[in-house]
């Protein structure tokens, strides 16, 4: 079960130490594991940047996090389609 004879134990978010003074950028932070991760970091004092594709869903996630942690420092960053981020690279001249 634990593999190689090692014991396993369940890890909880309560074990995350104080994150004040740190900034974290979390992709896919508007739902699922990304949202839960963002929420924990915000509750522990980190400055959290929610990097999401959908601005409405990221705004909703930001509001939900602040509702649970009113002093949280949370902002959003809209991600574009991955191919769009390559356009400036293709237009750049070669050295």
Write a short abstract of this structure:
InterPro entries: NAD(P)-bd_dom_sf, SDR_fam. This protein is an alpha/beta fold and 95 residues long.
Outline the structure in words.
The structure is a single chain. The chain is α/β, with parallel strands linked by helices. It has a domain at 19-78: 3-Layer(aba) Sandwich (Rossmann fold), CATH 3.40.50.720. It has helices at residues 32-43, 55-68, 87-91, and strands spanning 23-27, 47-52, 73-78. Helix 1 packs parallel to helix 2 (55-68).
According to CATH, what is the class of the domain at 19-78?
Answer: Alpha Beta
Strand order of the largest sheet: 1-2-3
Query: N- to C-terminal separation?
Result: 54 Å
Number of DSSP helical runs: 3
Mean pLDDT: 85
CATH superfamily membership of the domain at 19-78: NAD(P)-binding Rossmann-like Domain
Beta-strand residue percentage: 15-25%
Cα Rg: 18 Å
CATH topology of the domain at 19-78: Rossmann fold
Low-confidence stretches: none
Principal-axis shape equals: globular
- Counting helices, strands and paired strands, the structural category is alpha/beta
Helix content range of the residues, please? 25-40%
Q: H/E series, N to C?
A: EHEHEH
Q: Major β-sheet, in short?
A: 3 strands, parallel
CATH architectural label of the domain at 19-78: 3-Layer(aba) Sandwich
The total beta strand count reads 3
